[in-house]
Amino acid sequence: MTVRARKTALRIAALGAAALVLTACNDDGSSSDPGLSGASAPHSAAASPTAHASPTGKGKLKEPEKNSKSGAAAGGTKAGDAKAAQAKTDQLALTAEEWDNAYVSSGEDNASTDNFVMSASCEWGSDGTQVKGLSAATWRYVQQDHESDSTYAITTAEQFTAAADAHREIQKFRDNDKRCPDYKDADTDSGAGTQYSGVHAGTAPAVPGADEVYVEEGKNKWAYEDGTWSDSRDFVYLMARKGTVVVMVYMDVDPHFNARTSKDQARDALATLATKW
Prior knowledge:
Elements: H1 3-13, E1 36-37, H2 79-92, E2 104-105, E3 114-118, E4 123-130, E5 134-145, E6 150-160, H3 163-179, E7 183-185, E8 193-201, E9 212-223, E10 233-242, E11 245-252, H4 259-274
């Protein structure tokens, strides 16, 4: 399978890895989860998020048309506010130049705010709505090519209208991790998609300024259109929130490469994101 085919599979399946799974809190607002740091609910005028918020997040994102402006705000945000929010998330998501270790750009940005949910049968797909309270989002893709394969990464920045909505975005991750440690894209059986296995909370790094941090880890494999499957690949998905801003790093690791090294690079990328918010 060529690098181009692998890239296509990632963009179709992992690409929106943004935002999958969720975070549940104890009654006192703290979390007992090893992958979550500082998860107390935000204190704001908005209602505190509940532990049973419906899942959103990680899913396949449609590629925007060239030169399209797909970052319109959800929830009726004023046009001027939406433009400012989009400019902010565009600035936050890391460029290829901000990565180290020979990463290069892997296609155009995506500004989708589509909402993805986990079904009762652990299939992940869009529910046709927008993520609640999400004003703007920027997904930016890079890859690092090796002799036999590639490592792919996505940095994402999301601007919410309220801290409670931003907290809910991360909180969703824990719930899905617990309920569906093994799941698949809704269209995997149709000949293209991704299966995830052994999904669990990882160890959350300290992120300066963050109100909460969550890490998800596991394995995945891609289904190609010819019916074959990729090798099993490690992935790591890190996210951090500061007030109304959520930043995320998703890394899909070359199966022939050192997964620990790549996960360290993902943590470095999250630290870089945090210096910009």
